[in-house]
Amino acid sequence: MSNYDVKDMKLADGGRLRIDWAEREMPVLRQIKERFTKERPLKGFRISACLHVTTETANLMKTLQAGGADVMITASNPLSTQDDVAASLVSHDEIPVFAIKGEENVTYYKHIHAVLDHKPQFTMDDGADLVSVLHKDRRELLDGVIAGTEETTTGVIRLHAMAADKALNYPIIAINDALTKHLFDNRYGTGQSTLDGIIRATNVLLAGKVFVVAGYGWCGRGLASRARGMGSEVVVTEVDPLKALEAVMDGFRVMKMEDAAKIGDIFVTLTGDINVVDKHHFELMKDGAIVANSGHFNVEINIPALEKMAVSKRLVRPFVEEYKTKDGRRIHILGEGRLINLAAAEGHPASVMDMSFANQALSLEYLVKNSDKLENRVYSVPEEIDKNIAKLKLAAMNVSIDTLSNEQVKYLGSWEEGT
Length: 419
Known about the structure:
Blueprint: H1 12-24, H2 27-39, E1 46-50, H3 55-66, E2 70-74, H4 83-93, E3 97-98, H5 105-116, E4 122-125, H6 129-137, E5 147-150, H7 153-164, E6 172-174, H8 179-202, E7 210-214, H9 218-229, E8 233-237, H10 241-249, E9 253-254, H11 257-263, E10 266-269, H12 279-282, E11 289-293, H13 303-309, E12 310-317, E13 320-325, E14 330-334, H14 340-343, H15 350-370, E15 378-380, H16 383-396, H17 406-412
Parallel strand pairs: 1-2, 1-4, 2-3, 4-5, 5-6, 6-15, 7-8, 7-10, 8-9, 10-11, 11-14
Antiparallel strand pairs: 12-13, 13-14
Helix pairs in contact: 1-3, 1-4, 2-3, 2-15, 3-15, 5-6, 8-9, 8-15, 15-16
């Protein structure tokens, strides 16, 4: 195989061991793979994926390949690739991979174009960069694309904007809308893996720190809960009054970022928006402040503004850049402001990605069967897929639940009976 671009093929054997380790924690995807191997529902279809190249993603790619798909993958973030995994997919599974951890933006987009050269019939995206490039720069390929999926909140937001502008040329299922995705992946996965990335990068003690969480969506909820569990005093900043009220009722302090900036020790953004931590916030931060991002793109922290403020900059630890201001304060940016859980750690645990990627695999199968009935807009994961994944996960965990009796079903469907 010559059609790939990875860091070092000598890493392949180590990558295979880690992929196999992750598979043990992915029983739902494993069951889907077994069925796909027998039924081959994706046979003959070309799929181009732009996802984080991790051990969990590798198991998704192997599942799609088992279903008969012709798969290629590139990274959805320059810092999220696990180079040993990329090498293993090429060496052991003959899946073309275009991804190198730490690649420059030019290489990042070159790799996106490489998987688009595959002339995909289906796209799998995480952040909508692949879809964006396809619609802006590779429009000659659009007629051949049947449908696609999108993994994360940020990408779903972009796709809804495209659909509203009538710019989206094919139907896409928003995997993030599935309850078995955002309730678990975002809350438990992001909550744990973000702390993992911060601790690996800094080795700081979280207990006793003022930990500022920007955004109280599902990711923010998960992180706030985990940071409190580690002994931090958690402050939440929000623009949505309902989410802010929920954070207050959950027992967190809620305030404006400009007030939080004065007292925070650690700041993490999880909003999907731009310049959440801005110049005037940096001006208020204490010496030694640590700033990280766990949203998809590296725009949530205004690093260019900090660059202009700083009189010096140095890498003090891997993934920790120290910016020194004129008044002598030191502000630390983790992982270049990119996803800290993937830049400095391994991303979400496999057990939660099991459900997210089960949604990907089954939604793709659904699109193969039903794309001709769909319009060029964003769809949620069908409810029956979502519930089926939950059932499979419970079964794998040896958890049993009740079922409604005929009497209960009848009661719930009636209106005559009251008190």
